User: Which sequence fits this backbone?
């Protein structure tokens, strides 16, 4: 995931494999990397797009925190957001930051 998060564009199985194997003593197999990418796609962590005869993969979120938030919102929806806002209101600094991020800071 770190490699895909750092990538400037979607990556093929071959590119991921070559990057992961760079400097490895015991190289991973193409099919192993392909299986992991396919499973991460099935879990909603990656998206894939057709590229020629194969696929390229990219993450659905910019980092691990983004994945966690996406999962919580998916699983709990509006209730999760309401609890998050309640938590933010309890911390004035966090609440100001949230308002700035939402463009509600008056500036």
Assistant:
């Amino acid at each position: 995931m770190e490699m895909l998060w750092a990538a400037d564009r979607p990556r093929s199985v071959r590119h991921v494999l070559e990057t992961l194997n760079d400097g490895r003593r015991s190289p991973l197999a193409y099919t192993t990397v392909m299986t992991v990418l396919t499973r991460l796609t099935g879990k909603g962590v990656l998206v894939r797009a057709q590229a020629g005869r194969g696929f390229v993969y990219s993450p659905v979120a910019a980092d691990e925190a983004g994945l966690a938030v996406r999962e919580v919102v998916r699983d709990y929806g509006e209730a999760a957001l309401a609890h998050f806002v309640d938590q933010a209101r309890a911390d004035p600094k966090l609440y100001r930051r949230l308002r700035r991020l939402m463009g509600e800071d008056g500036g």
User: Anything to note?
Assistant: Strands lie at 11-12, 46-51, 54-59. The chain is about 60% helix and 15% strand.
